[in-house]
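Example 3.2
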Amino acid sequence: MMAKPHICFVAPDTWPVLADDRRIPSAGGAQVQQSLLAKKLAKRGYRVSMICLDYGQPDQITVEGVTVFKCHAPIQGLPVLRFFHPRLTGLWSALRRVDADIYYQRAACAQTGVIALFAKTYHRRFVYAAACDLDVARDQTWQLFQRRAGWRDRQLFQLGLTLADDIVAQHAGQSRDCHRWYGRVPTIVPSCYADPPQKRAGRNGLVLWVSALRTGKRPELFLELARRLPHLSFRMVGGPSAEADGESFFLRIKEEAANIPNVEFVGFVPFADIDKHFDSARIFVNTSAFEGFPNTFLQSWSRGVPTVSFTDTGSTLDGKSVVTAATDLDDMTRLVARLMSDDDDWQETARLVRRCYEAAHTPDAALAIYEQVFANHPTPGPLVDLPAHSEASATH
């Protein structure tokens, strides 16, 4: 019987979620998924490591069976040069120190290409998991890389996607795009969420919006929705994003929300404290221009909270669409008003989303597929040091 492989999650921003470190305002969907999967795999007897940024935590500290290796600090080094050192050199060094059988990474970034090159150099396996529909839609991926040096980072990401040994998609739409643009047929693994104990949607709850406040999430549309439905209670939860103008955008939305009487603006909430807000919701609203498979949908569905959204995950059950999809703001206004006033419609939709969660989105359902992805990968031999010039060329 083949031994279970050593799996390393390359997840730089995930330490705050993994360790419940509330000092650091970070709680993205990819971080939540990687933290949950890493801990669950460790409980199943896998050796699990994770590479994270250096937030001041000890190196090689173990959290619920997951050994965390540090690469570099979030802001370290000189502009332009820091892309090479300490970021690439720090990542490459951490990859070598971990010496895993399989490296797993989620979400589009330049690191995807670096990890893929490392895996090819040292004969390791690399699994890439899409976190957004645009990751695998090559004609639209540029929208994820609009910051400085975006072209360079996008080329490295697409190189990594091409070299990956396995690709994981969240739903059938991503699978079709990956095959169309990269000629690859990924394994579909639905995102998962741990079932909240004895927590269910409340008939008398409010309209909830949760996300980082970035332009692509379009929080201003949620505020306009609240203006159109002044008799309902709305709550917005989310902190500044890492975008160049993230702080100023956050302050603008906060100021706008303060002038709408039926909106409660909460700001950033650590992931460990977010459940109480979903427990207070009757419906959840998503206004993003694009998504992958939002964790917020699963946080809602696991409680029986219907979701009204401009983006549709394609989820169906018994021939019925699980997402209550809106075509525009007028349509969303109508759908929200109906679900907030029609108890029969709300109860039927609440049962549907809860059943969908139970059928496809529990951690056990996701792990059953991931274990197939990770299985049958021959365990490589010891990592052999390369000549110094070879490693230098690979990191650059």
